Amino acid sequence: MEQIAAEEITSFDTSMDLLCRRRDLVLVVPGALICLRSLYQRAALRGVLSQLRYVILREEDYVVGTMEEKLRDVVRAAGNLPGVRVIVIYLSCLDILVRLDFADIEARLSAETGCVVRCFFRGPLAKADAMPHETAEDILRSLPPEETCIEADISLPPPMSDIAGAADFLRAADTANVLVTPSGCRSPIARMDMTRERRDVYAALPAAEDYIFGMEETIRTQVEELAEGAAFQKLNLLGSPVPAFMGMQEEFILENLSSCGCKGKFFPTSGFQDAVTGIAAASLSLVWEAAADWGTTSSCVYVLGWSEMLVGACAQFAAAEDFFAKRGYRMHIAGRDVLSERPVLAWCVSAAGLPAADWLHDTYDIPVLQTLPLGAQGKAAWERTAAKMLGRTYRANAAQETAGSKSYGRNSERILLIGDPIASRAIVCVLRAYGYCDIRCAAYAWTDETAELYRRAAGREEILCFQTREELEPLWNAADIVVADPAFCIVFGEKRLLPLPTGYLSGRDAVCADGGVLGAAFRRALAAFLGIQGGGDTSKKLK
Which residues pair with 88 in a beta bridge? Predict the structure, then answer.
C-alpha cells in the first residue's frame, strides 16, 4: 500500500514529451477521463496542447466494441489538421487489455489519412505485457524528417474524474480512501486533483500478474494490513478503469475488515465519469447508508454537493452555519461530517447534491434548498427561503431591506456565465439587480449524466450543457464579458473575464482559503466589477 500525497511534475522526459518535440506530430489519446486529465496537464505545461487530441469514451464502449470506431474517427479528424504528418495513438491500459488489431489500425488509417499512423503502448500494462513494444525513441527514429508545424485549435480541458471527485469528497475523520488503480491513474490525483494537506489517501499496488489472474487476493491483503496498522475506523475502496473492466469482486476484498476493527465501503468509480457525477453517486450512497440508523427527530441541516475541489473551501459557508446555529440547527456537510440524524433541510450547494436531496425529499418529505446567499439581496432571499422551509419566522435587517433599492440603468453588455447552475443562479440575481439583462448560462458536462444533473439544477432556466469547444464557441464569441474559470481563456483566447476558478477544471492551484462563489475572493472581484460598471461602491452590499 502506498500513501498518495500531492506532488508536482518535475520531469519532462517522458515518452509523451519526447514524441511531442516533433511539431508535425499529433498525439491521439483514448482511454478513461482520468487518463486524459493527466496527459492534458502535461501538454499544457509543455505548451503543446495544439498537438493533443483525445477520444471521449464511455465504459461501455470497451464492453460492446464501439471504442475502436470512435478512435478511428478521431484519428481521421486529426489527419485533416493543417501541418500534421504523423499521428501517434497513445494507448491506455484498457486499449491494451482489449487487444485491438493494432497492425490493421496503423495500416488502414495511414492509408486513409496520408499520415504516418503509429500505436504507442504506454502505462503499467504495457510494461507487464509479454509482447515487446517499440519505445518512443524507436518510433521517432523510424519517421521521415520533420518538415511542417501543426496549426490547430486547442481542445477543452478534461475535468476532474469521478475517482478524484470521490476522493476529495470523502473526508470523514478516522477514514482512509484506498484507490485500486494502476500507477498511471494515481498521477492526475497526486499532481493536480488533491489538495496539499491530505494525508488520508492511499493506493493499493497490484502486481503485474494480477492483471491476468485477478487482483482480489493482492488488494485484500494490502487493505487488511492498512486496517491493522493504522488508526482508521473506516476504509473507502475506490474503483478505477482496469478493475472495473476486469469485474473486481470488492465484497471479497472487504469481507474480513470487521475483524480488523474497521468498516469497509466500496464506491464503484470507473474513471470514465467526471467529478460531478462521482460526487453525486457517493453522496447518495452515504445518505442511503446513514438513513438506516436515523430516528424521527432532528435539529440538523445537511449540505449536499460539496467538495473543496468542486465547490471551494468550507469557510464560505460560515455565515450560513451561523444563521442555522442562531435558530437551533447544526449544519452537517455530507462527506466530511457524520450523518447521524435525519435532516430537517437539505441544502444543495451544487448540482452534485441533487440525487441525495431528491431522495430525502421523496422518502421523508424533507425540503430542498437550491440557492446561495450571494450579495445583500441574495442573502436576504436565501435566509427568507431557508427560514420558511424550517418553519421559522424571518425579518430582514435594515441593510437587507434597502439592498437593491437604488435603480441602475439597463446595461446592454452580453454576459456569459459558465459554471454549476446553482452558483450561476446566485450570480445572475446579483447581475440583474445591477442592470445586466443579457445573460446566458452554460455548464461543461463531460457525460450525459452530468448534463442531466445540470438541467435538473437549472430547472426552468435556460442553460447550454456543452461537451466540446465547438458547442460553446458561438456563445463565447458573442459575449462581451465571461464569468468562468480562467482555464477557458487558454482554449478560446483572452476575453474580459470575471474569474471564478475551480478545482474541477484548474486543479488544486484554483483552490484557496477564500475560494468558492461565496468566498471573499470572488465577492471582491464581483464587487470591483459592479463598482466600475454600475457606479458606486458595492463592496458592502456583497458582504
Answer: 27, 118
Q: Which three cell numbers stand for residue 295?
A: 430516528
Q: What is the pLDDT of residues 394-427, one digit of tens each?
A: 776 655 555 555 556 678 899 999 999 999 999 9
**Alpha-carbon span 56 to 156, nearest angstrom:** 11
List the grid coordinates of 393. 419566522
CA-to-CA distance for 142 and 88, rounded, in angstroms?
13
Q: Which residue in this structure is represented by grid cell 457525460?
A: 447
The pLDDT tens digits of the residues spanning 209-231 come to: 777 778 899 999 999 999 887 77
Q: Which residues pair with 237 in a beta bridge?
A: 178, 266
The larger pLDDT score, comparing residue 537 to residue 358, is at 358
Alpha-helix residue ranges (DSSP H) falling in 297-392: 308-311, 318-326, 354-364, 375-389
C-alpha cell at 75: 484519428
Question: Using N-to-C axis directions, what is the helix angle for 448-458 and 354-364, rounded to 10°?
Answer: 60
CA triplet 335, 246, 309: central angle to 5 degrees?
Answer: 25
Q: Are 418 and 443 in contact (CB under 8 A)?
A: yes
Residues 35 and 102: their CA atoms lie apart, in Å, by: 20
**DSSP structural state of residue 156:** P
Residues in contact with 22: Cβ distance below 8 Å, sequence separation at least 6, in sequence order: 86, 140, 143, 146
- For residues 519, 525, 529, 534, the Cα torsion angle rounded to the nearest 10 degrees is 40
How many whole angstroms separate alpha carbon 426 and alpha carbon 422?
7
**Separation CA 173–CA 152 (nearest Å):** 47
Please state the pTM of the whole predicted model. 0.93
